[in-house]
Amino acid sequence: MSSAKWSTERGNFGSKSIALRPKPSHQLPAAPRWKPKGPFRLFNLPPELRYQILSSALIDCDEQVQVLQIFLASRRLYAEAAEIFYHDIQLDITDRTKPPGLLAEPLTPLSPRLHVRIMDLKIYPKANLHWFNKFYVPVLRQMAEQGNLRTLHLEINGRFPRLDFWTDHWSYDDEFNDTEIPLLVGPETNINYFGPAFLADRPFQTFLDFLSSPHIPEVLLYTSSVGHYSFWCAFHRQFSSKLGLPCINGSWRGKSTRLKLNQKLLLQTLRHARAMGNSAVVLPSSPSNLLARNL
Q: Which one, of 85, 87, 88, 166, lies nearest residue 123 by Cα?
């Protein structure tokens, strides 16, 4: 075996020589170029890899034409693409009474709403709760029973300036919406409480009926952190996590934009609430304190 030959070169700095091994005379053969032998079969790939490809093509792409072409390629590709594209949806139904196109169009096997898994729905001031109960609740239940809907995040935003959001009555007096009256609340409807009149009215009670039996695996209820009705304060966390400040009269002093409500306590307290006579003696306590003393 012959020993390798060494050559020397003068370094760039000073007169010292640098020993260099000579480059090998032989070179590795170039890898043969891959040539397709037929059409590329996307569905031959593992599901995990198809998910990554479609996610990149749908979510990270700004070309609407490309997204449309994917949906129109085939029924099977549409189904897999829709699972990704419509996985979680956020809807703000400001000033709406009837559902938008995604929820309003006739149901077919290709309806996009059947592929929604997580929905974040915001109810804003001018939306009448009656319309939510009448139009949205059946559609949401249909999405869960016939489709993939598993989680509903429902946010009620702020103080509603119109009485007809909570009730079937029209009022031009914005302050009337905040009118508090004597109520009977609690699991047995025998606890005296002073609260807004709409708590005992039919639309709000129908809304609580939906929360008690939504036919959706998971429903999470929130209220906006700024300017919410003070009666919600009994059902959300009392202090901000970082500042440790309490919520005062519906004004949250933390950084959260919305507050999760304790639905179990809410239903125990306010479901089946009914109005009392104006002459009844009422304790001005929060529902949570009343429950703690009476449960």
A: 166
Confidence band (pLDDT; 50, 70, 90) for 144? very high
* Confidence (pLDDT) at 118: 97
Amino acid identity at 54: L
Neighbours of 267 (CB within 10 A): 16
Q: Are 88 and 119 in contact (CB under 8 A)?
A: yes
| CA distance to 144, 193, 198, 255, per residue, from 160 (Å) | 29, 21, 11, 22
DSSP count for the chain of H helices, then E strands: 9, 10
pLDDT digits (tens, 9 = 90+) for 10-63: 555 555 555 555 666 566 677 777 777 778 888 999 999 999 999 988 887 777
Report the DSSP beta bridge partners of residue 19: 8
Cα Dmax for the chain? 115
> 3-state class of 288 per DSSP?
helix
